[in-house]
Fold this sequence. Notes:
By secondary structure, the chain is of the alpha/beta class. About 30% of the residues lie in helices and about 20% in strands.
Amino acid sequence: MKVMxxxxxxxxxxxxxxxxxxHVYLLKGDILSLVDAGVKTKxxxxxxxxxxxxxxxxxxxxxxxxxxxxxPDHIGLVDQFPRVKQIAAHENVDLWLSRNETxxxxxxxxxxxxxxxxxxxxxYRDVLKKLRGPLNFAGSGHVDTIMKAGDPLPxxxxxxxxxxxxxxxxxxxxxxxxxxxxxxxxxxxxxxxxNPLLEAPVDGGDRPKPMLQYRxxxxxCLHLGIRTVFPGHGEVFSDVASLIPSRLKKQEQxxxxxxxxxxxxxxxxxxxxxxxxxxxxxxxxxxxxxxTTGQLDYLEDEGLxxxxxxxxxxxxxxx
Length: 319
């Protein structure tokens, strides 16, 4: 637990995930808000209660929950606060909190079809059966207040909502312009690069291209006057002007490697994934396919690769 200033305190809770601990933030204003809600485990709940107590509060004092995005390590304990009057978040978060079955079925169907287009052999598709697994660590409820880019944060009018989609299609961050404070969820992390995760389209249209979104929103953050980042994971930091160009450059270097692999002959997403993630692709196929797709989306957007469909599989080639 760290008191950052008179209105914001950082609370750190453990997770069972490789990313490690998650930070949530107690925000004082017209109402008492909790930004993000950790993961749904007994250990996280006890840690959160203990640190609230150190700050002089109990779970019953929390009046509002504000969410940066829908991932389980950020929404796990949303339903544990008896006096919460509203949950504020991007509209897409409601699909996950409410366990929208129609959406989940469409989500699973999208990835089943996408893995075929990626050229993923049938013996590797068991990962598709685990898409709902993370929901075991997520809370349930409904989004009462939908937030959009440019809105003031409910109950905290000195904070502005910023669209930071990329890591998630529901991702929002919050900027206090008077001092450049930025509650960034998983959009800006100092110690690791956020993974722009592939998601099914919400409306059944074209799939999102999270790598392109993430890069555009990183560049946007260079011009927001951010001075201090309060992240979802890792240390609080301030070197945004050097970190963002470094992240962009590393992504471009990874994409250059993918382009080199394509210069010999056209390849499917799975074939490329297996080469650049030789040690990880079997155990983390969903994440590595997502990352590989992102690199190809970037190369295609730059006009460096093309693609063609053969027997239901999409093959990319260097131009």
